[in-house]
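Minutes, project huddle
Topic: does the predicted pose make sense with magnesium ion bound?
PN asked that the exact inputs be recorded in the minutes so nobody has to dig through chat later. Recorded below.
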Amino acid sequence: MSETTQQKPERRLSTPVQFVKGVGPQRAELLERLNLRTASDLLFYFPRDYRDASQLVRISQLREHETASVFGVVEEVDLRNTGPGRCMLGALIRQENEYLRAVWFNQPWVQHRLAVGAGVLLVGEPRFSGGRWELVHPRLETVDDDETPTAGRILPIYSLTEGLNQSQMRRMVQGVLDDYRESLVEVFPAEYLAQHDLLPIREALQHIHAPEDPQRLAQARRRFIYQELFVLQLALALRRQVLSLRCNAPPLPLSAKIDARIRRLFPFSLTEDQNRAIEEITADLARTTPMNRLLHGDVGSGKTVVAEYAMLLAVAHGFQAAMMAPTEMLARQHARTLARDLGESRVRIVVLTGGLSAPERRQAEEAIASGQVDLIVGTHALLGDQLSFRRLGLVVIDEQHRFGVRQRAALRRADLDPHYLVMTATPIPRTVSMTMFGDLDLSTLRDKPPGRATLHTYLGDETRREAWWDFFRRKLREGRQGYVVAPLVEASESSGVASAEQLLSTLARGPLKDFRLGLVHGRVSPAEREAVMTSFREGTTQVLVATSVIEVGIDVPNATLMTIEGGDRFGLAQLHQLRGRISRGVHPGYLCVFAAADSEEARQRLAAFERSNDGFELADIDFQLRGPGDLFGTRQHGLPPLRIADLNRDERVLEEARRDAQQLVASHPQLHETEFRQLHRMATHRYGRALDLADVG
Ligand code: ADP
Ligand code: MG
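Predicted holo structure (tokens), as shared on screen:
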């Protein structure tokens, strides 16, 4: 590989892995499965975990229940059947003349990692049993002779693919470190590193793959976590900068006359928080820089009214306003609310969803293009390419977390930048809003409209079921309506969890046989669903049996009862959204959740749900219990996933990186011409597509 040494450093780093020392064509194929194609990919393939062999303990020094790392050699392995489908795997581990036993129950596959004579590193909680130390289900690492852990190392653990083991991976990474580290270019200026307590890149890479001690490892991780969050925050700051430089939005100034005309439409006076949000929004709308604002508020806090105000302001100036909802049901609900409030006024509304027939759709599209309609309410269908707006001034997006960041950009047209208002009813933990919505200004509704009746939440158990249905029936006879929610549409054999369809038939024969029931879930056709909803809204249907499709957008103030089955199957935010359906009127709401809380996490989640009715607090609890994974994953927002940072764990670094990135963009408007140009390039390269930064630098 003599010619590579003459190449430019960046070129060397893009050498295919196949040519990296210790890799070769066969392993390169395995690495390809891990998306590792170049020397640089391998260099930046961070360990997913570590085994601390720097604190190795001798067997004779073990202490009962104190987690310890032990290195030894496998002497014997035995696997015994202990019953149908059960087994016990034991291994005798020798450390010079001392012995210890490792045991695994019902994990026969572990034996393939226990070759007699091989060195292993075990980490676990020892107990003294039958005259000998024993480790039950220890974490296990195989260690090669040349990696003698007595040298006091911390071993990196990589995510692997079949056909590769840890020591092979470690050796390849070490090879690439040895040969390519010097080609790495530092992206932060030296002074910046010193000021922000960051390790230089070469040192950081060395210590993330082969740390000398826990302190060095922590420093190395800090460097990469900071860098990852900084690059993301830089991209968000650049997006804000781009947006603030645009000046192609229609100015929509507010006058006292318009204000009075809009307020007259609402049958109530607005809350203090609603008024503050409206002030912030109208200040934005008056400018030619497009508004990019997130309206953040708990279920029932009155966001829709605020959005309606903004939309009517646009219409007052002769512009169209579009509202995009995540589901057809929610879009129709919004359209109905608007139609009701607008009553006799001359504002014209059209609904555009995937459920329209082709001629209906064409008609709607024509009305939008010719300017015959002022307010357009729809779903994703609004994003269609053919759709052209006559004079689009404002876009409201409801339930933003279901849309990607990128889709916000999709409605923009070359001639005119509409203003954007994004609403979310899912309270978002702070760290997530700083990231996913880091490019937006924030308005928050914390207080709720007055006159709301109280909401009672109970955790039910089977002994209380009869009493609960008694109560439920009594309230129905008093004229109230209710929901029964199940986690599944249809029964699945394995789960043992009630499905909506099953529930409907058992309820219709049992506890609710004297009442009129309806069924709605994701597989009910739009037309049928609309019929069921209308019947429920009108009070003909008394109880709606449903899945979580009713989570958002249903506004039937007379529905005050809810039974949730399989409550452990729902996330906290989702439970809270569901609960929002029965606190919309003057009558108190009653909710009983039945759940099989087998895990500690589910128990805590349900306890928090019973205790608190504050969506913001619940969002933070949920986030701590579950981590960002499913609900707030970056992927769901159309951003590439984070590789080393964790929004929950790394909150402090996130704040630091965010502040630093914002300051940097503010103080260096031409960032791509400064010594930070590499970071600028990384930000636009990684996030440019998702954040629509194509026209930057
Ligand atoms: P969100 O969208 O935040 O869940 P909505 O805007 O749908 O909340 O409002 C919930 C309910 O409260 C609606 O029935 C709405 O008409 C009513 N509402 C909104 N603002 C007020 C207010 N200031 N006073 C009384 N009722 C209000
Ligand atoms: Mg709403």
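Observations noted during the meeting:
- The two ends are 36 Å apart (CA to CA).
- The chain is about 35% helix and 20% strand.
No decisions taken; revisit at the next huddle.
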